[in-house]
Amino acid sequence: MNLGGEGLACARGERQIFAGLNFTLGPGELLLARGANGSGKSSFLRVVAGLLHPSAGTLRLNGSVLLPGAALLSPHVIYIGHQDPVKPSFSVEENLLFWMGMAGHAVDYRRGGQGGLREAARSGRVEAALEAFGLAGLGQIPARFLSAGQKRRLNLARLAAIDRPLWLLDEPATSLDSAAQELLAASMRRHRQQGGLIIAVSHTDLGEDVTHLLNFGPQHRMEHMA
Amino acid sequence: MRFRTLVIRELVLATRIGGGGAMAVGFFLIGASLYPLGIGPELALLRRIAPGVMWVSALLACLLSLDRMFQADEEDGSLDLLLLSQFSPTGLVLTKVFSHWLSTGVPLIIAAPFVAQAFDLDYHAMITLMLSMLLGTPVLSLVGAVGAALTVGVRRGGMILSLLILPLYIPVLIFGAGSVEASLFGIGPQAHLIILLALLLLALALAPFAAAAALLLHIRA
What is the reported pTM? Predict the structure, then answer.
């Protein structure tokens, strides 16, 4: 899978947020977007996800142009935004199971409670995903008892539970402790080894070798590191 | 598959703590029962006001859970992910509306005969009431979805939502209550019920698109 953007621009309301942005991304590569607060990094990520329309420019997937609004990328994307989509009245497992179901994974969500969960837990995918982000053993507790960092871990567990080639991570390390940051780096490394693509917005390098660096500011510059 | 997953999630959320399902039907049961208690056992008067009182109570009960239809998902970022999960925005709205109707409208229809006892409605009027609610409550969810989508980004938007939506509920109120009245007076409720059906078809054809457009407007703003 190859992803590229040419001359991307984004306007929200009257304000031009960025313009003339070019990028390319190939298998196993990590693009890191950096810049001051409010410089348009998150908007860039939302444009790639298809949640925002670019006011100019095109996105290309494997060379063919993606039409704005068609959300053609969404079958390939996991998007981790600022907020953690965690329902407090669901258990940790149920939260993860729901998003797996919405991604098309066959999970038995029928009873929403114990019976359905045992079914999915037996397949091991849920447990493996929770373990990948240090939530092993917490599957049955209601998500309202989770701390901010644990909620973030649960959100990130979608990365391990759902197979998608393109990860869009908006400051994924927010409120994570150093152990969880290690786990995140490890899963990013694994994803890239399997040929996955990552676009991340972060103020640190997330403990990873960055392939492309996109600097947001007065003029956008893309540096190729590797 | 995804439709089923989302509907089940909505229903489970509605039945758990903080969900809107039991709240709406509880409000309907208590709210409508207050009138006979306040007015006293004057059966002719109760029978006369029953259609209006019960339909107004149903409208307000439906309104209670409406403001959370999209807002709960907007606040925790779920709405972004739902829009990325290969639902068309219109399909997402329709699924949400269907779930809202299942968790709010259907319990109201089931509760209606019990409340009707307090107003001494006869068998035919009660059947008409349930039929009119079967046709009318989906309209409440559909039209309400437009208001919920328009106010999705407004904190404490319940008040604005009521102001936006209640005027649009008036036709349902008129023909819903009218059908029960017609049945009480022995005229036959068919005309009213057919108009309710027409309202349902109209809302089904227009509201999902309007609500989806309002959601996208918010997401892309």
Answer: 0.90
